[in-house]
Design a protein that fits this description.
mainly alpha, Death Domain, Fas, elongated, cytoplasm, DEATH-like_dom_sf, caspase binding, phosphoprotein
């Protein structure tokens, strides 16, 4: 089983932890609640196995101080190995220790809508975004990283997607677009996608997005 290691060696520069979104009106941060639940369900043997699998991305000194799943997850968040919109590494850990029940919790978290609707585009814009994303996913191909850079996505996120979904181009494109929407929140706009496509000279894809959006807007009148 492959675990991402590029850029996360023991001597690597560790970026500051970014704020984890998702608290909203529900009062409890969904992502932290998920990690707390997973941590509570781990046996000492399972925690030991997970620590072993992390030895290439977490220094020995830090691993020796880990006494619980919460300790381990805090480090992984700090090093940006896991985030509310990037659970692939956590999924691999849970697959390795064969905890299907915890994997089910993970899947449920990903399927549920966040508790902060104020941080999402309005309903009409979400419908337009969904349509635009489908068109881009089917047409942008290997130019996805170029597009994401034009949209301002941090390079570390792009490298993480490429590593986590190596040799799976379709999934790389899907995850990149999904994470862009999550990153932008209510500021995610179809107009920005079209502008970025044209900025990359992907004019045919931009035309197709505009055509699809025009169809949807005409149909809602």
């Amino acid at each position: 089983m492959d675990f991402p290691s590029r850029g996360f060696g023991q001597d690597a520069q560790i970026s500051p932890a970014r704020p984890v979104p998702g608290a909203g009106p529900c009062g409890v941060n969904r992502f932290l609640s998920l990690l707390h639940s997973i941590s509570s369900g781990l046996s000492d043997t399972e925690l030991s196995s997970m620590k072993f699998l992390c030895r290439d991305i977490i220094s020995k000194r830090k691993l020796e101080a880990v006494q619980s799943g919460r300790d381990l997850f805090s480090i992984l968040i700090e090093q940006q190995n896991i985030a509310d919109d990037n659970l692939e590494f956590l999924r691999r850990l849970l697959q390795h220790i064969r905890r299907g029940d915890l994997l089910s919790q993970l899947a449920k978290f990903e399927e549920e809508e966040p508790c902060a609707p104020d941080d999402q585009p309005d309903g009409h814009e979400q419908r337009l975004l969904k349509a635009a994303v489908l068109v881009i996913h089917d047409n942008v191909g290997r130019e996805w990283k170029r597009l994401m850079r034009e949209l301002g996505m941090p390079e570390v996120k792009l490298e993480r997607i490429e590593t986590d979904y190596r040799d799976k181009l379709s999934e790389q494109v899907f995850q990149a677009l999904r994470q862009w929407q999550s990153w932008k929140g209510k500021d995610a706009k179809v107009a920005d996608l079209i502008q970025a496509l044209r900025g990359c000279n992907l004019n045919l894809v931009a035309d197709r997005v505009e055509g699809k959006i025009s169809e949807l807007n005409t149909g809602t009148r």
